[in-house]
Every structure is written in C-alpha cells, then in structure tokens.
Amino acid sequence: MQQQTQAAAQTFDVVVWGATGFTGQIVVEYLYQKYGDGQQGLKWAIAGRDSDRLTRVKETIGCDEVPVLVADSHDPASMVEMVEKTSVVLSTVGPYALYGSQLVAACAESGTHYCDLTGEVQWMRLMIEAHHDQAVASGARIVHTCGFDSIPSDLGVLFLQTQMQLAHGVYAESVKYRLVKAAGAVSGGTIASMLNMMDEASKNPGLLDVLADPYALNPINTVSGVDQNETSTPVYDETLQQWVGPFVMAGINTRVVRRSHALAGMPYGMGFGYEEGTLIGEGPKGYLKALLAGISTTIGTSLAAIDPMRTLFSRWLPKPGEGPAREKRESGFFEVILHGSAGQDGNGGSIKIKVTGDRDPGYGSTAKMIAEAAVCLAQDPLTSQGGVLTPSVAMGEALTQRLIANAGLSFEVID
Ligand SMILES: NC(=O)c1ccc[n+]([C@@H]2O[C@H](COP(=O)([O-])OP(=O)(O)OC[C@H]3O[C@@H](n4cnc5c(N)ncnc54)[C@H](OP(=O)(O)O)[C@@H]3O)[C@@H](O)[C@H]2O)c1
Fold first, then answer.
1. Which of 188, 231, 306, 405 has the most CB atoms within 10 Å of its CB?
2. What percent of the chain has pLDDT over 70?
3. 25 lines ligand 1 (CB under 6 A)
4. CB of residue 148 inside a 6 A radius of ligand 1
C-alpha cells in the first residue's frame, strides 16, 4: 500500500537511463513504438549524462515529446534526483561495475524498482551483499540480468517446472538448457563489460573464486548444492542424442537460476541440478566440434586474462556505442531447448520445452525483454517482495505472458 502511494506521487512509470547507448537506443525505439510518447498509458522518460546526445536520440527516433532527464553516475545527487521521479529505472549504462553502483544504492534506499542487463557476476554479488536487506525493507525490486542473459534460462526453468507439475505432479530434479541455434553479434558495450570483468579479476584474484563458484549469487545460507562449475569438455546429452559444448553465458545464467531457486525456498528440492551448454551435433564429428569449441573457449578466456592481450582485443573489437546493424538484428533469432526429469533416469517423469526469440539475442530481443520487464515492474500487480531478486522471482508468470504477447518470445512444451 505504501509502495502504491509512493508510485502515484511520481512523475514517471519508467526512466530509461543510458538512452544514448547502443542498446539504450533500441530500447527507446521499442518503447516508443509499443507505448507511445510518454503522454498516454505509460509515462516514461529517457535519461543520460549528456542532454545534447539525448536530444539527438529523440530526433533520430522521432519521439519528440518524450521527456529528458540528465543524470551522470559521477554525480550521486543526480542519481537520487532521477530515482525520486520514477517508479522504475531501466539501466543500460555499462560496464555496470564502473557506473552502476550509485544507482542501485539510490533505488534500494528509496524503494524504486530497477532492472538492468548486467552479466557481471562479481558486481551482482557486491550489490546483493550491499543492498539486498535494504531493498527488502524499502520494497524496491532490484532485478539484474533482464536480457538474453538470463531471461530465457530463468523464465524457461519456471515455465518447465510449472508444466512438469501439470504433467507429472512433481518438479524436475535435473534441468538442462541447450542453445540449439542463434544468429546475432556483439556490441562494444558488452565487450567493454567483459574486459572490465577480466581486468578487475587480474587486480583482485579473489574475484576468480567468485566467478568460479556455481553458487556465487545464492543467499549466504544456501551456498551449496549438487552443481559443479562449468567444464569445457564435451558432454553427451542422452536425451537429445547430441554432443554438447560450452555456452558462453552459462557462467551467468546458471548462477541466476540457482539464486531464483534459493530465493523461492528450494521448491525443486535440495538435490536440484541445473546446467547449460550448446548443442553441437551427432557422432564423432559432433564430438570433435564440441572438443574444438571447448578448446577455443579455454584459449579465448586465458588470453583475455592477460593484460596486453586485452588491450590488443579492444583495438580490434567494436567500441562502446557500436554494435550489430539493424538488418542483422532483425534477421537474427534464437532457439533454446530445456529438458527436465525427475527420479532415477527420468522414471518420475520428464519434459522438454522450447524457448525462442524473433530478433538477435543480444540486442533486438534483449531490448524488448528489458523494456517489458520495466513495464511489468511498473504496471503489473506483482506479489513479490522487495530485494535483489531475479526475473522469475520478481515478475515470474506476468513477465512470461508479456514477452509472449508483445516481445516475440515463445515458450512451449515440445515433448
Ligand atoms: N545481458 C545481455 O543480454 C546484454 C545485452 C546487451 C547489452 N548488455 C550490457 O548492457 C550494457 C550496455 O551495452 P551497450 O552496448 O549499449 O553499451 P554502450 O553503447 O557503450 O552504452 C553505454 C551507455 O552508458 C552511458 N554512460 C557511460 N558512462 C556514463 C556515466 N558516467 N553516467 C551516465 N551514463 C553513462 C553512455 O552514455 P554516452 O552516450 O553519454 O557515452 C551510454 O548511454 C553493457 O554492460 C552490456 O554488457 C547486456
């Protein structure tokens, strides 16, 4: 009730902070097309550190009436001012470990909801430690990972378990996520965030332990379980009858799914196991390809851990503000299968679901996912409490339905 009274006094439902960035502009375009210019049902505004750049974004997109706020991460007062004007802040300002902490602090303190696209596990851990209790008290729903990492994983597991209950009356004890196919590319902002994570780890080796911990995002009292850290060795998936190689987002998504399970009170049991990989192919050829994928992942990660190599990489790769062209985003897509089973060899029942998206995973689909997450936090009658949450715990079924209705995602049982 207190939350509703606060929200009613605020000027905006959603403020998009980072609207001048590569992903931020795609979010703004989507919100404008879907919800109009901020004067009707959804009251929203764009924000960033430079008013001229924000004006150029409005001119490019044609959303002249959308209000503008100026807020710089290096000016904490501007963070507080922005947060006090809105029910939800959607942030695409990254690397989040460099620019995001003041904003999360301001949201947790004031009870303002928040969503972002971070995949920086070490920073999420810090935010949990610093702000979870405060957000519980203020009612702020702080929700990281509202893009391709980790919505298909986190809402995929929720959908699978709901369907498993309906079909077999039990939850799956083991769930495996397999990336089947995807087309897209990466932006300079994402590369900057990944390189910053490696940079931080090279200065503080303790962070490597956090990144290697499969339960790195769990609440303090639920930090263990049956899962191990990812390996790059090929694994044979008996259910799908194919070899599986590493999946680059597994180190983020698996931690998010395990946090969701812990925050929900371990409904799938203490023995619940979750893993992710990329479906590579059948037979000896599939094995060889999975082996090569594992070797190149290991080499890539090892090279990125070396300071001069990071400098070299950043010269070749896209710079902040750059990313895949519209055509590439619109012709992109993704398809993921999750399969779950209960009991020894699945004798308690099993299920397979498919999650798809109709744009490239990193930007076209991600922009729609985070935009709908922000609208969901602002307008849907959610029952979750405040805290540093996950997409499934904060928004659950309400967000799944929005993504299906508006954002080109599908969730379906296939077997
Ligand atoms: N999880 C996913 O699926 C996913 C997908 C896409 C992106 N991401 C993440 O999203 C983040 C953004 O990526 P991107 O490619 O859009 O990056 P980008 O193009 O470099 O955009 C960064 C934005 O941050 C703003 N910014 C930088 N410093 C700031 C400061 N001190 N105060 C206020 N604003 C500041 C920039 O403003 P200026 O224009 O003024 O420089 C720009 O708007 C990255 O961390 C990336 O990893 C994640």
1. 188
2. 98
3. no
4. yes
Identity of residue 198: M
pLDDT 10s digits, 10-22? 899 999 999 999 9
Q: Report the distance separating Cα 1 and Cα 378, nearest Å.
A: 14
Per-residue model confidence (pLDDT) at position 231: 84
pLDDT (0 to 100) of residue 8: 45
Q: Is the CB of 76 under 6 A from ligand 1?
A: no
Rounded mean pLDDT of the chain?
A: 93
* Strand residue runs (E) in 92-220: 113-116, 141-143, 174-183
Compute the distance from residue 395 Cα to the ligand 1 centre, in Å.
24
- C-alpha span between 335 and 213 (Å, rounded): 27
* R_g of the chain computed on alpha carbons: 21
Beta 242-245 vs 273-281: how paired, if at all?
antiparallel
Distance CA 336, CA 328 (A): 20
Is ligand 1 within 6 A of the CB of residue 24?
yes
DSSP-assigned states of every residue in 45-63:
EEEES-HHHHHHHHHHHT-
Q: Kindly indicate the confidence band of residue 301, based on its pLDDT and cuts at 50, 70 and 90.
A: confident
Give the residue, by CA position, lying nearest to ligand 1 atom 26: 93
- Asked if 135 contacts 141 with a C-beta cutoff of 8 angstroms, the reply is yes
The tokens describing 403, both together, are 């993504």
Q: What is the pLDDT of residue 281?
A: 96
144's CB contacts (< 8 A; 6+ apart) are 115, 116, 118, 124, 127, 256, 388, 390
How far, in Å, is the centroid of ligand 1 from the Cα of 295? Answer: 30
Average pLDDT of 300-304? 81
